[in-house]
Write a structure and sequence with these properties.
Elements lengths: L1 H13 L4 H8 L3 H8 L9 H13 L5 H7 L5 E6 L5 H16 L3 E6 L4 H13 L5 E3 L7 H9 L3 E4 L8 E4 L1 H14 L5 E4 L6 H16 L9 E2 L5 H12 L7 E4 L2 H13 L9 E6 L12 E4 L2 H13 L8 E4 L2 E3 L16
Helix pairs in contact: 2-3, 2-4, 3-4, 6-13, 9-10, 11-12
Length: about 350
Amino acid sequence: MEANGSAQRMREKSRVVTLREVAEAAGVSTSTVSRVLDDRVPPSRSATAERVRAVADQLGYRRNTFASSLRRGQTATIGVLVPRLSDTVMALMFEAISRAATRLGYFTVVATTGDDPTDEGEAARTLLARNVDGLIIASSLREDPLPRELREQGVPHALVLRTDGISPSSIGDDEAGGYLATRHLIDLGHTDIAVLSGPLFTSTATGRLAGARRALQEAGITVNPDRLIETTFGIESGEEAGRRLFNSSTPPTAVFAANDNLALGVIAAAHQRSLSVGGDIALVGYNDIPLAHLLPVPLTSVRTPFDQIAATALDLMLEPALVDNPIRRALPTLIPRRSSGTHRTPVGSPH
């Protein structure tokens, strides 16, 4: 009898406690439990984290990602689609996704797609054929068919940086960012401001342009259509648009470039015309890539919180049933530097 009781206790002790059991007992999502119990990152001291750890100890939970993945019939692998890794922003986004996935015990595989929906769909099918557990997509266009197909097929997925307005999406608040950038230039005294929007087939470009328009309209500044230039997100496109603006008989005094690569192109165009950035021309970029603060004239930029966006995207992909709002927006931050110059006294104003 005593031997039978001992065997029963051993079986109970050896039973594997799952993340979901801990999550249900603690009243949080499984992804929250996974982050809290990951000993590869500094422990959180929040009340929620303390409760999760206490519940896990009480239930006898022991982390075993590989075994857990096998029991779920999953591979603990996430596919990531980006337009190109030569784009600094997309490389930063992928690295942030990879860091967030590692904390949750997942491995990431990346595929590049350009801006071609056909190539994007083929890359998605290839990754799914390799049994990834879901897809994180940074290549989505506004009218992209892939998210709709994934929804119809019940494939776990989330969009990052860009959104189609329906699928689970973790993005920056692009309208707020465009507003901050343009409002900063207005507050410095500029009224003749050009906006390089990026490609308007992306939600990022349309959002940033909408924010810029709102700031101009609030300030009572008439929006000159010639000052709103649709571009790609590449350096060459920024240089081309900059030459077009600076070769004009009445060049603008300020430029908001909807990403930092565009801003680098504008700097090149200004140099070709012997115009000083931060002096003759005020310039604001977007995303605050690592190079921005290292330039000879450090670039004012709107910082995108890539790590926050990545972590939210994984939550949306892994726990879609627990998400009330499928589109999450992270607030950007304006980082003022020398490229936007100092306060400018408008022509005709008293000194």
